[in-house]
Every structure is written in structure tokens, then in C-alpha cells.
Amino acid sequence: MAIATEAANVSDVRDFWLLLKPNVMSLVVFTAGVGLYLAPGTLHPVIGAVAILCITVAAGAAAAINNAYDVDIDRVMVRTRKRPTASGRISPADALAYGLTLAVFSIMVMGLAVNWMAAFLLAATIAFYVLIYTMWLKRRTPQNIVIGGAAGALPPVVGWAAVTGDVGLMPAVLFAIIFFWTPPHFWALALFRTKDYADVDVPMLPVVAGAETTRRHILAYTAILLPLCLLPVMLGASGWLYAVVAVMLNVGFVLHALRLWLDGTQRSATKTFRFSIVYLFGLFGALAADKLLSSVVVGLVG
User: Fold this and answer.
1) What mean pLDDT do residues 110-121 have?
2) Among 147, 120, 115, 121, which residue's Cα sits nearest to residue 134?
3) What is the pTM of this model?
4) Same domain (yes/no): 173, 300
5) What are the angstrom distances between the C-alpha of 19 and each of 49, 63, 80, 288?
6) With the C-alpha atoms ordered 177, 178, 184, 188, is the resulting torsion angle positive or negative?
7) How far apart are alpha carbons 3 and 25 in whole angstroms?
8) Cβ distance 283 to 177 under 8 Å?
9) What pLDDT digit, counting tens, does each position of 148-175 carry?
């Protein structure tokens, strides 16, 4: 009996962890960390760790509230039916309470330990994802991902503000990169999950406009990303290392989108979706590596 109870408790802990959507959280935390690292000025390592922890908890909080609100459609969709709320392992009420508690905790700690500008931006990120995307846009318009992408684009701005206490041009560029990356990323996913969204009446672009239009939109957005991603170089915020990686990644993204547009297969959609994740990790990783290289060179010369 004791062993069975212990196993149940472990399962409960795991379910509450899964409620935070850790796979999605990893990308959010990474881009936020890069934003923090790129920001001018210094931040005590402990305070920096607290800032990243707050962003992590906030991302999980938004995911938990999303799970609570979307439980009705999550139960129908193949991709989501095993989520803790959809499967009944955690009630929507418990998920909502859990998410709200984490949200308040992350915002207050960010404000008290780091600064209130970062706390305000963190609160705006949660509110935008929950109120604007989840509750308003997702079930009403095929532009849900386009507008709702602002929530996922804010973490590097929060990381920057944690160091500087304000927002400037460079964090706006980081925001824009993720904002324009989000639609082709999610539309590629939606192309091979169209039936899922159609079954629950979520008006994703492939459901409303069809696969051909969606593929054309994906190609257009990937083309826009190429000049946009070179703005850090034009602003003097990054050097040749980032420029080379950015061009290679963007060419790769465009080629994936072009192949998808031409053949329209599920295989190409899956490959484009997977490459989009590698793309964002690689792009922001290159930004951080470029700054690190510049610091090492300056240190050696000095």
C-alpha cells in the first residue's frame, strides 16, 4: 500500500510538471536568457538566476492556465488529449489555481528582486498569452497565431529589461524576429494537424484558407525573416559570426518553406516545423556566441 501511494504521489508531481509544457518552456527560457546576456550592463549572477527563474515560472503559469481553459478542445485533439487536464488527472480548477499562484509569485519576485519594468513586461507576457491569445483570438480568427505570437516574442525583452530596467531598439529587434518566426513555425505544425483543429472548430489558417494558402504564407514569412535577422549586424550589436550563422539558417528555412510550397507533403511540413525549432535555437545561440567571442577578443587585445 505504501509503495502504491508513493507511486501515485510521484505521478501527481509529474503531472503538475507536464502542466507547465516544459518543451515549450525551454525555448522561452533560452531566448529570455540570451536577451539578458546581450543587454548592456551587469547583473549579479544570483539576481540573473532569479530573473530567469521568474521567467521560467511565468511561462509555466501561462501554460497551466491555458490547459485549464482549453480542456474541452484538448480532450478531442489527438495531439493534446493526453495532457493532465484533458485526461482528467488534474482538474481544470486545480490547474487554474496552480497557474494563477505561479503567475503572481513570478511577477512579485521579479519586481522585488530584479526591477519593476521587468515585472511589468512579465505580467504583460502572461496576460497577452492567456487573455488575448488563449481566450480571445485562438477560437475566433485565423490570425490567432500572428497576433498571439507577441506573447512568445516578449521573453527576450523581459530578459533585457531585467538588466537595464528599460527597453531599447535591440530588444525590439529580438521581439520582431520571434514575432515573425511564430506564424511559419505554428502553421507548419497546423498543416499536419489540420484535422485536429477542424474537429474542435479552431480556425487555424489551413482549416479556414486551405493548405495551399498556408504554404504560401509560410514561404512569405520565412522570406521576411532574412533581412529582419540581419538588423543586429546593421545596428552594430553583432558581428561576422552571427551574420554567417543567420544567413545560413535563413537560407535553410527558406529552402524548407520552398520545398513545402512545391510538394505540399506532410513530410515536408514536419521537416519545416522541426527545422523552425532548430532555427530559433541556432539564431539566438549565435547572438550569444558572437558576443562571447567579441568579449574574448577584447580581453586578449586589452
Assistant:
1) 98
2) 147
3) 0.93
4) yes
5) 23, 7, 11, 30
6) positive
7) 32
8) yes
9) 999 999 999 999 999 999 999 999 999 9
